[in-house]
Amino acid sequence: MSNRIDKTNLSIFGSLFLIAFLFVLSSTYSPFSFRRMHSDSAVYTTVAQGIAHGQLPYRDFVDNKGPLMYFLSVPGILLGGFTGIWITEFLLIFISVIFAYKTALFFVSKGKSVFTTGCTFIYAITFFTVSAGVEEYSLPFLMASMYLFTKFYFSAQHDISLIELMLLGFCFACTLFIRPNVFTFWMGFCMVIFFEAIIKRRFVLPLKYIFGFCIGISIAAVPIFLYLYLNGIINDFINQVIFAGASRGVQVSGLKELVKRWFDIINRPYCIIPVIFGIFCCIREYKRPDFTFFIGYTFSYLLMIFLFSLSGSDLHFNMTLIPFFVPLLASFIEALNSHFLEIKTKNIAIVVLSCVIFSEGLAKYIYNITESLRNILIARTNAQLLSPIILNNGIVNIVWYTRRN
Asked: Which tens digit of pLDDT belongs to each residue from 342-377?
């Protein structure tokens, strides 16, 4: 019996590992990818390279992203350049995959949770292939927080340990130091938790929540602020990230443009569905234990879309909405599973519908992989045609296709 359990857990771990690996295979940081790097990704890499060589962010470089974005890339650069960054990216995505799986377990069985996780990251490719950077770096913290919020709401007493509160605060702070404009993810869930505690006259609990959350924030924030202060760049950080970032984060000229951006974001592939799903579940679960989870889920999702509408409507922003698709897809798969009685028909229906739903992500993934293979063949052919003098001055054929110089 124990051997069977070990084999099951090993197969699950292997499946999750494979999902993460196949996902990052299409990244522009991948050593197997010859796609041209996105301009944002190039900026993040340049700053991280500078830090690795003793330069300072916000003084030697100008950018409005948080410092943790660069710090996470530095070990990879020191160990293996772009390949090292790709390994860092893989580890972060693998953590995201694990927490997506753990979140799905609250809704479906182990096998279906693996399938849900796979579907979630197939869908995420739709937005991941645009650029590589802050979105996937913040994703593990968002996914871990979704797991902790789900665990809280689905627990019998709606309680959370001090360690879990600290982890939530830590994830919140880390995300702020990577991509500040996703703080509304925590705002929506936390507001519902506080209101629920007040309504139920559990007045001591909010103090516990604030205390644990603030400790977690301190664990992440204090070392970063010490680095900024000791290097004399805290004022540069404030000017570039807080003031300049905030002014750049609100780029709406009027209500008409705000509404247009809101619809731009919500009309991207299947991004309206979490709103419909959340509202439907709020109505269905009214006066049931799960009601507050879906209130927080829907409120957080709408707040994130609203903030993105203020700051811009770039396609890759939607990748930070991926954690909301885990409960949605798990519920969808469970509904299909209960609707079809015959196992063979059930499996065929789930696979066919999943392929139809995620056709855009799959198409982009296959295109990027085949494009990379084609460019590798072209690069090798050109390497044979180029003179040795040009090759000795730099690997021109690789720089030509990747802009990784």
From this structure: 566 666 666 666 666 666 666 666 666 666 666 656
pTM listed for this prediction = 0.84
Indicate the helix (H) or strand (E) that contains 152. helix 134-154
CB 271 within 8 A of CB 123: no
Residue at token pair 């720089």: 399
DSSP string of 164-183, one letter each residue: HHHHHHHHHHHHHTT-GGGT
Cβ-contact 294, 278 below 8 angstroms: yes
Residue 218's alpha-carbon distances to 174, 200, 212, 231, in angstroms, are 10, 29, 10, 19
Sign of the CA dihedral 177, 179, 184, 189?
A: negative
- The count of other CB atoms within 10 Å of the CB of residue 279 is 13
Two tokens at 397?
């054929």
272 contacts: CB under 8 Å, gap ≥ 6: 266
CA torsion, ordered 53, 132, 83, 377, to nearest 10 deg: -130
